[in-house]
Each structure stands twice: as structure tokens, then as C-alpha cells.
Design brief:
Blueprint: H1 6-9, H2 23-26, E1 29-33, E2 36-40, E3 46-50, H3 57-74, E4 80-83, H4 92-108, E5 112-115, H5 120-133, E6 138-141, H6 144-152
Parallel strand pairs: 3-4, 4-5, 5-6
Antiparallel strand pairs: 1-2, 2-3
Helix pairs in contact: 3-4, 4-5
Amino acid sequence: MGMYSPVMARSRPVSAPIRARPLARRTQMMARGPGWRLVEGEADSWHVALRREVDDPVRTWAHLLRTIRSIATTHRLRPILIDLRDAQRLSGAAAQAAGLLLAEFEQRGLRICTIVGPDLIHAARLQHLISFHAPTCGGSFLTEDDGIEWIRTGPPPVAAPLRPRHGGLSVAPPRV
């Protein structure tokens, strides 16, 4: 039976303190998707960790973007730190999907940063994506501490104007 029993109530002495979980274990997971999970991070931000074992990275990035848009309609959107140290290198359609997420934060004027670890090829690819999709609000760092410190410094002074996406970037020679 599932009834209350006085014997069960006396199983722990009254004077024994209840152990509190460590602070790192108290954060609640807020959202999870195919190959990623989003939790509350430091400095009033969100922390997203991506996994390497992902069948379809495009689906992962698209689901992450849809979830963040959904959270933004019901909760206050926060700066975000994306941990890519355990993720696959971005290329092709996955890089385009990641660019959409970066552009979303750029349009809202919120900071978004990526942590890539020691993989310098991945860092170069991400820096290229960030310079195109989130030049003002985006950042890429090798360590998590640098990323958190950058998010902690606050919003950028001026949001970048939206660029047209129809033909990509065109470079014109300087007028003399």
C-alpha cells in the first residue's frame, strides 16, 4: 500500500541535516534536443552544449533555433554560450543553419559566443561565420572562462545594421 507509516517517518533522525547539492548540480536543465542541451549558465546567460554523436547536424541546429525562438516568446531571451568542444566541425548546410542562429541573436542585439577549445580549424570556421552573421554581437573563444567574461561585459554599444542576404558579400574597389 502507498499509505503513510510512522516507521517510515522515523527512518532519518530529526537532527540529521539535509545535504544540499553543490551549486554546480543545482542548475536545472531547461531544454534538450537531438544532440544538444540548454541549461542556465553564469552571468544570467544560457549555456548550450553540443555532442559529437549527431546523426544530422543540420537538424540539430534547426531544432536549437526553433527551441530558442519558442523560449523567446514565453521567457526573456538571454545571451548564450554555445560549447562546441565536443561537437563536429561546422561545414556546409550545418554551418548555414548555425549562421541562422547567430543572425537571430545579432538581430535581437544579444551576445552569442562559441567555445571551440584547441581546434584552430574549427575556430577559424566559426570566426568566419560570426564575422558574417553576427559581427557585433558574436564572439568565438578557445576557453569557457573567456566566453563567460565576454558575455558578462554586457551588450554591445550599437547593434549592427541588417545586411541584405540576396547575393552575399560584394567588395568594391575604393574610389580615388
